[in-house]
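Hi C.,

You asked whether I'd gotten around to modeling the 484-residue construct. I have! Everything is below, sequence then structure, no commentary in between.
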Amino acid sequence: TLVGLRTLLFVTGDEHARIYRQELERFREAWTTIADATGVLSGIEIPEPLFVFCDVDRLKLGASWAMLDQLRRGVLRRGSWPGLVLNQISPTAAAFVTQLGDLLRGHGLNGTFATEDLNRAGELALKYHDKANYVDLVRSSSLPLPLHVPTAVVSVEQFLAVRRWPELVELYRTATGDVEPAAVYVKSSRNSGGNIAARLTAHNFNTRGYSLCREVEENVRTRNVDFTEGVRGVRVEVDASPTLAPLGITDDRLLRYSREQAQRRTGIHLLIQREIKGPAGGGHHHGIGVSWYIDSAEDAHPIVTATQVYKDADRHHYLGSYLGPHPLPQTQSPEFIARVRNLCRLFAAEGWRGPISFDACLNEAEQYEFVYDCNPRLTAVYPMLTVCEALRRQGVSVQQSFNLGYRGEFVWEKLDVQLQLLKKHGLLFTKDHPSGAVVLPNLSRHTGYDVTLVNLDMPMIAEVMASRAFEQGFANPHVDRFYL
């Protein structure tokens, strides 16, 4: 919306489209309220979304009456062909694009999407969502690459057979040839860092190691799984969504989806990595996300390197990404850039084109070690970049930014009152006060809003988030300490 793109929304029928239209009207009203209160991001036209019918159980697309009416009104002109921008790709997304192309051609539009390229990209995205395949790719290369943390890839059975800390250390050292570590991280090859992951040491192995084994049994082997507990968590998300809650999705249906999802969790391994200790003294940007764009087999260019901010010392619970006024010096050397470009070339040789992001951590020697987390997609940093770009288009200077999610993390029943409260305490970004919270409406939660903190350094961000005026309505309250 901020850069003028039309959204494509999947709907279960015309009643669902009506619900979306109702929420979009609230969205526009909230946008106008924010623009009037701040004097920024005004005059931005919100394109009418395209409503496409989707059978959720069969994953089949079709024409809704709402879409046919939109074609009649010229929202998409017959005889033309729209461009399509995806924030991520998967085999399912590629199949949807193929169906969408067939649907649009069947209703008078002329053109095609690059479905062969999308299918290949979907397969690669799924392949490298598995960190074990990233490990194999790096090990097979003779190119000078960024420093990667020593990593053992083991089967679930190998890990569950470990009974003592020395056995885990031996398993790691045999696979990597590394020295004995004081601590290791064990994580699933196909989950994000906060899921099925633990920091293990000689001191906590008998307690945390046992609980990790239980998590692996349940979530990787899918044994003794309490699906109803997972359904309760999903139910909370569904009920919080103004466009999903009215659909009458039953717990039995959610339970069926959970069980079907569990059946797909095959071929997962576990990664054992030496803990990367940062430089002494703290204050460093320990975790970063390195985002690049692969243009061709030989050409790739950097987009941005963002500092990752966490809510916990183990850095399992991601809070947001921070972009400072100056690039991190370790990431700007010609050698670092050349090595990351070589890493991108490995993925390019596999056929990947488009955005790709890698996670890395700063070690004691102040070098970034990559941790085999690869995101062949648009990551959470892109919503923040879009906000910054929209501000710059309106003549606003943006030096620093910090995003706090993009799923309506702030729930404010009375938006105008909250905006006045933020403004009173000097926390609201306005045309006359160009630092603070940039607020945008969101459809994920009823009266939900996204916040990006702009032109504040990390100490100032900590002060803002500790303010009661800011904390009110935040889905992650009481974040009184950050971990970089």
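If it helps when you're writing up: The first strand starts at residue 8 and ends at 11.

Thanks,
B.
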